[in-house]
Amino acid sequence: MEQNKEQAGRRPLEAQAAILNELVGYQEGSIVSRTIIDKKSGTVTLFAFAEGQGLSEHTAPYDALVHVLDGEVEITISGRPLHVKPGEAVIMPANQPHALRALTNFKMVLTMIRS
Fold first, then answer.
1. Where are the coiled-coil regions (predicted)?
2. Other C-beta atoms within 10 Å of 107: how many?
């Protein structure tokens, strides 16, 4: 029975409304993620970054859309830093180096479409 409760808790978006900000929480000194959709065609993942945490510079073979839900982040794309706030979104182009650094605790939705 516990497994069914857990599975039900992990699928709150199926055929119902949910508040994305509430589906992933902050943990001091950590990055927390939760995959919402994982298909061959792409993924949608929620992230919660503790202040000061980040992802070092890397590239991805697909475009990725970052939509900030809470807090502030510096996203650097090909050496150009962008200060991104709640409600704002940035496309990180495929094959361009990018990095993220949490200026405050921040949450984002990362959407990657494979094509």
1. none
2. 24
Q: Which helix (H) or strand (E) holds 8?
A: helix 2-9
Side-chain-side CA neighbours of residue 33 (13 Å): 13
User: What is the identity of the amino acid at 65?
Assistant: L
Predicted pLDDT of residue 2: 36
Measured between alpha carbons, how far is 24 from 96 in angstroms, rounded to an integer? 28
CB 109 within 8 A of CB 45: yes
Nearest-CA neighbor of 31 among 52, 12, 53? 53
The pTM assigned to this predicted structure is 0.86
Q: 114 CB contacts (<8 Å, ≥6 apart)?
A: 40, 41, 42, 62
The predicted structure's pLDDT at residue 115:
75
Kindly list the structural domains of the chain, giving each domain's residue range(s) and its CATH number in brackets, ordered by start: 2-113 (2.60.120.10)
- Res. 35: pLDDT tops 80: yes
d(CA 90, CA 73): 11
